[in-house]
Amino acid sequence: MDASNKPPANRYEALYRDFDSALMRRIRREAYGEDIGQHSWVGADELRRDTGHLGLTHSSRLLDLGCGPCGPLTFVIASVGCSGTGVELSAAALRLGRARAASLGVEARFTLREADLDAPLPLEPRQFDAAMSLDVILHLRDRLRLFHEVARLLRPAGRFMFTDAGIVTGSLSSEEVKSRSPYGFTQFVAPGWNEGLLESAGFRLIETENRTASMLNNARGRLSAIQAHRAELEKVWSTAGFEKQRDYLETVIKLSESGALSRVMFLAEVRTPQAV
Prior knowledge:
Helices cover 43% and strands 20% of the residues. The protein is α/β, with parallel strands linked by helices. The chain has a single domain, classed as Vaccinia Virus protein VP39 (Rossmann fold), CATH 3.40.50.150. Strands 3-2-1-4-5-7-6 form a seven-stranded mixed β-sheet, with helices on both faces. α9 (212-228) runs antiparallel to α11. The N and C termini lie far apart (56 Å).
């Protein structure tokens, strides 16, 4: 079965199977400098800044869409003292998330829901103060549907922050698109696309920030780390799996350096009705 046709929850299963092994923790430390259980382009310092963007306090309720193994979500909960709910389709990732929450002592403020972000979410409206989605949006088939769902779930003036590493700002070849999409369906969009959809879903855009430099830095770190542990990783991933991951990271680096593909942070808030 081609990766693009696999059920979304299955695309990351090989990654999640050994995610918390001693080897993978060592690779994350070498790749990112600080291991918070991330597997995307998120760095700890970036996430610390984003808690300020979201206006989180100890009384806040945060929703993390596509939380994966919950590294960033549990990091925020532990750092801020807020409550957090993660939504993720992979059962393996959810098991890892529960274990991480327990190891950090935040399980009392932590909940998980197994759900598909391309479908209506099984959550009650107006129960969250803020929402985030880190490098997940580009894998959705209908991001407008999700934006409407987020607007439904947030309280008035609630903030939504997400990163999109698939903004086309140059030219891409078919080979580059294939190498940049190793986990299945990936949607690359033009500048302004997300802004228009947020407006349609009832959001007011507050800020955007180009974060391609951080993606490039993290991709270089990840590539260096996996190359340093190639022999060990080939036993886990297979030689073909290692080469696929290496090609992916080399493509990210190439497209970031050339300016062909950008990673952008979007910060928006739910529009409140105007008084009549």
